[in-house]
Amino acid sequence: MARDRAALGNRVSTVLARRLGGELLRLRTAAGLTQPQAADALSATAAKIAKMERGWVPFRDPDVRALCALYGLSDQKAVDALLEVAKLDRERRKASGWWKRYPDVAIAEYLAMEDAAVRIRTWQVALVPGLLHTPEYTAALARDQAMIDDPDEIQQCVEVKQNRQRRLHGETPLNVWAVVWESVLRQRVGGVDVMRRQLEHLLRVSHYPNVSFQVVPFSAGGFPGMIGPFNIVTFAEPTALDVVYADNPSGMICLESESGALAHDKIFDRTVRLALSERDSRDLVERIHKEI
User: Fold this and answer.
1) What pLDDT, on a 0 to 100 scale, did the predictor assign at position 10?
2) In this predicted structure, what is the pLDDT of residue 227?
């Protein structure tokens, strides 16, 4: 992984760039042209075209226009839409996000997307959503789940979560719809005291105007969401598709296709229909808090 990053230098693949690159790839294929032929139109190399189509480099407007002309895309509205995607991608790449201070964080790309999002829908089967963690809960997870022993690394995990949670406040707060399985509330991560404070925190944040919190009780029986947790990330730009991030034993996987987003929309909607109302969910949190 480190060797791959070194080969790419400072280039990063972004959601918008991959979408734009994919569209240009589709247009090139439909036109029956090769990467070297496209490269000739830009006085560039085939390697540059490959990087553009994979979303590894920012797009210059003259390059987008030249490729559209070469591929026979004459609809000016369609060309303008692609230019707008290129502009949005360049602006996002230049943003000095807080997450850049943590280059070794495994989910760095997700953090950048979350910071640019306007809405997060999250479904969790075992853990409290990261945006709703207390520092103590985060530290306990770092020790017990991630098996981190270094105090500095644990503190970094806490800092990352605290920085993420800043999006819950401010002039344009992130809208969060968090749905969790009842097991999330009963699993005593970090012990009784840590979990009691975490439940108290959930009760507080559940009253935020930009946070919806619901619980699927054990009595709901079987449902599609049992397969595993995921986040659906929504952006303000109309050109940006929802992105789905799902936990995987080796990290997080990203689904950027329209079909992937729609499939998870359906799972989330079905899961929500089985969840308690927000008021009843808070009542359940309070009961479990009293039990422990």
Assistant:
1) 40
2) 87
Enclosing domain of residue 63: 2-94
As a whole number of angstroms, the distance between CA 226 and CA 24 comes to 38
Token readout for 158 is 């806490």
- CA 202 from chain centre, in angstroms, equals 21
Cα distances from 68 to residues 5, 64, 101, 183, in angstroms, run: 30, 6, 37, 52
Among residues 94, 113, 137, the one where a domain terminates is 94
Give 187-191's long-range contacts (Cβ < 8 A, gap of 24+).
Answer: 187/126, 187/127, 188/292, 189/127, 189/128, 189/137, 189/140, 189/141, 189/144, 190/136, 190/137, 190/139, 190/140, 190/141, 190/144, 191/140
Mean pLDDT by 10 residues, the chain (292 residues): 35 73 94 96 94 91 97 94 86 72 67 86 97 98 91 94 94 96 97 98 98 97 91 79 78 76 93 97 98 92
Q: Are residues 50 and 116 in the same domain?
A: no
53 and 159, same domain (yes or no)? no
| Those residues with Cβ within 8 angstroms of residue 280's Cβ, 6 or more apart along the chain or in another chain | none
Say whether 240 sits in a helix, a strand or coil. coil
| Radius of gyration of the CA atoms of the chain, in A | 22
Same domain, 10 and 26: yes
The residue written with tokens 């559209």 in the block is 68
89: tokens are: 């991608």
Kindly state whether residues 164 and 256 are assigned to the same domain. yes
Residues 154 and 276 in one domain: yes
> Does 86 share its domain with 105?
no
Domain harbouring 41, CATH code: 1.10.260.40
